[in-house]
Every structure is written in structure tokens, then in C-alpha cells.
Input
Amino acid sequence: MNSETPNRDMALPWSTRTSNIAHFLTRNARRLGDRPAIVWNDDTWTWRELDARVSALATAMREKFAIRHGDRVLVQSPNNNQITEIMLACFRLGAVWVPSNFRQGADEVAYLGEKAEASLMFCEAGFPAHAEACRTAIPGLAGVISIGEAEFGPSYEALIKEYLGTDVPNADVERDDPCWLFFTSGSTGRPKAVVLTHGQLTFTIVNHLNDLMPASTPEDVSLVVAPLSHGAGMHQLTQLAVGAVSVLLPSGRFDPAVAWELVERYKVTNMFTVPTIVKMLVEHPSVDEFDHSSLRYVIYAGAPMYREDQKFALRKLGYVLVQYFGLGEVTGAITVLPRHDHRIEDGPDARIGTCGFERTGIQISIQDDNGNHLPAMGSGEICVAGPAVCAGYYKDNGANEKAFRDGWFRTGDLGHMDAEGYVYITGRASDMYISGGSNVYPREVEELLLTHPALKEVAVLGIPHPKWGEVGLAVCVAEDGQTLDELALLDTLQGKLAKYKLPSHFVFLDEMPKTGYGKITKKLIREELTARGLMPVLETVS
Output
């Protein structure tokens, strides 16, 4: 056999069979049946109870709504026990979980359901407009199930009660069978559905446990701080894998004092969140009022953490911080900066600005525009390969062609790697910015702003903010003879975008800066605003 040519005839026809992720629940129900799985407010569900509820829900989905292997199931809900049950019921049936960001507007969620070609929707009772929008927009939607009592669909709990006691085996799945459509936004601002599979997520679960939270056991307790529809959902899967309990925050506005009280009460050992929330937690007086010595891992991702904030958090919490860099397309698994690589004191060992080194089983390549691999300290696009990379975008060949090159996934982030393999992000290939851990793509905001009849041109930039990391600045030019004001422009966006996407500042110019070719570039606009003293500075941003 030619050593340069792999012998693909050796592939076995049964080699792609893999374990269904829902088998983690089956295993826990057998071995840890009476131990708590989820705690929320005053309620606790054991692993055995959770397994029974998931089977009841899976039966209802199958018998009443004909959900089968591969069908997509849309979910609009904040954190609760039901969102986890729905996820696991989908996995158990071999169906595909499609969670939305519950802060999105009705039309935004309807687009997600239409894009995913959803067959069924679960909707929290407080979102009737979302249920109606999805019924209208999604052809073939078999029904909408209400989490809580509502007129728009049958009751979730009534279905559980009706089918409790049924037993549903976990569906046979292959490694590349989709199980989660993770919606993200592209440079055009239109959401794209990232296809996550059983085999890929199983690898990522093991990777998270090895790289982020080594030595996790059923004795661990995880505080759920972020929305389970996104990165926190991936984190919860790791707790499922080891049989650790997940404690949910009460519904409503995030309160650091409540979070720290739960840490003390349940002896929380780990949590996943974003730098903005870490900052809020450690700067709140309650951090000194409750015992948090049980914490072993405070994992943060989604945005860079300012160095001073990092040092302050280390002084308050000790060496429990773990950073990772990742995207939905790579299920978060690109780099890790473990506890022992965090430093309070500045100096060469602190590696200020790094997001860590390659995760286990992942390879990173810094590449130029032509796909050439650059040497250490060479600046280019951060590209990644490995089992955590998604199967592509759902029914979006154009996006797939742009995102993958020679087998490498292109992150769109720019940076370099030092001689020891530590990665530093220095910029973004797109104009996307991160506000409170959530990606904001200016094109989406700009297109909606331009529906205002008096607006001629607009450019939205991300600018530094001491609390949220970045917020939006809208630079606007009015049509000739027209006037603009901030309130009127914000009114154009109300109800159409999630609040974190709304610009926090507006600047009005008579003419938009352009290149010699008549092109509007964000770089040129930033330079113009800075030169004219119109760029808000960090200290004055509110």
C-alpha cells in the first residue's frame, strides 16, 4: 500500500454507529436514580424522575405530533427544567433540538423555525406573539405546546401527566446524525443554522471534561447562569455526562446576591458564564457575604476579559478561572486557558491577552488570505480542525464554501500563535462585535435602521463599554432636507431586534466618510470620528 495514499477500502460499514447522547440520562437513572439532577426554585428532580419525564414527553411528541428521527423541534423559552427535558426528549427520539435565544423578537424566532423547517414548537406561555408568528411562518408545523398554561397550545405538564410511565428506548444514531441546530449569525446578519451531531457533541463533552473541568464527578454541583439555548446548554451536557446536579437561577433579572446565596447553599463547584457576568459577580458586595470556597471552576467565554477585571476576579475568587475561546461552529472547543495559567501579577508568565492553547484533539492553524500556514507570531486568520468542528450549516452551501477551506474551519477571527502554542486574538475579519457575551452583526441592525425614510446612510460600530464589553454606536446621515433623532431611530428597531443588539449611542454626520472608490469602511469612520472628537471614550460610556 502506498504510504502517501490512505486505504479507504478498510472503512467498515458499521463504523459510524455511536451512542445516543440521551444514553447519559439512561445511565444516570440506573446508577444515580435518587440523586438530584436539576434544582430550580423549591423543586428538585432526581435522575430517575427526569428520565421518566423525558420518556413521557418523547412519547407525546411521537404519538400526538408524529415526531420522528431527524425532525426539527423549535423551542422558545428562558431557562427552566422543561428546556432540558425537551432537549433530551429530542435526542431520545433521534430528533433535532432547535433552541432560540428567548430574548429575540417574534419575527426573528419565526425565521429560525422557518429556516430549520421545524415540525413542532415548544413555547413558554409568556410568548404568545412568538407562537402566533411561528404558526404563520412555518409550513407543516404540527403544533405548538405551551410551557405553562396558555391558549395557543396544549399544556406541557398535561402531556407529561398523560404519558408518564411509558418507556422510550434511545434511538439508534450514527456519528454524523444531527441532534442540535445551533443558530448563529453570519456577516450578512441573517442567522445560520450550525449542524451539531451526536458524535461531535460526544467528543466535545469529553473534551470539556478533560480540558475545562478535570476530575468532575457526581459530587459536583453546577450553577446555571447563562441561557441553556447556547453555551450553557453545552456546559450542562457535561454535567449530564458525569451525573452532576444543575442548579438553575430563579426566573427574572440576574441578581448577583441570589447567585452567591445559591453557591453557598448548594456548595456549587462550577459555573459557566461570560466575562460581563463574572465582573458583575465579583464586584457586587454579596461576594464577600457568602461562602464560595466550594468553587473549583468558574469558566468564562464569549468575549475577552479586560486584564484589570481578570486580576480583580482572581483576587476575589482565587485561582478558579478557566477561559476558553470557541464558536458555535466548533461547540466552544478551540482553546483553553486553565486555572494554573491565570496570573494575578503582570509579567512574562502572565501571557497577557492570550485565550490559551489548543484544546485536546484540536489543531489550530494561523493562515493568510490564500490558506498558507503562517509561522509563530505570524498574524492571520485563526483556522481550526478536529472532531469538535460542526458538520456545516444547514442548507447553506454558500456559507459552507466560505467557512471551510482545505478541510479547515475559518473562524473569521484574526490573531497569532506564539512559539509555545498560546493563541492571541487581535481582531475580527468581520465587523461583528460582542456585547455582554452575545455576537452582534452590524449589517442586520443597519438594514432595519435604513427602513426609516429620513435615514440615508448608516454604519454601526462596536465601541468599548466598561460593563458589557462592547455596545453599538450608530453613525447616521440624513436624507437631504430631513432631520433625525435618536428616539425615532430606536423606535424603528423596537420589537424587531433583541435588546442587546440595539445601538446605545448615535452620532449624526452631514456626510459619511468614504474611500476614493466611494466605499464606506468602518476603519475610515472610526478614524474620522476620533479626529473630530466624536468617538465616545470608555470613561464616558454609560
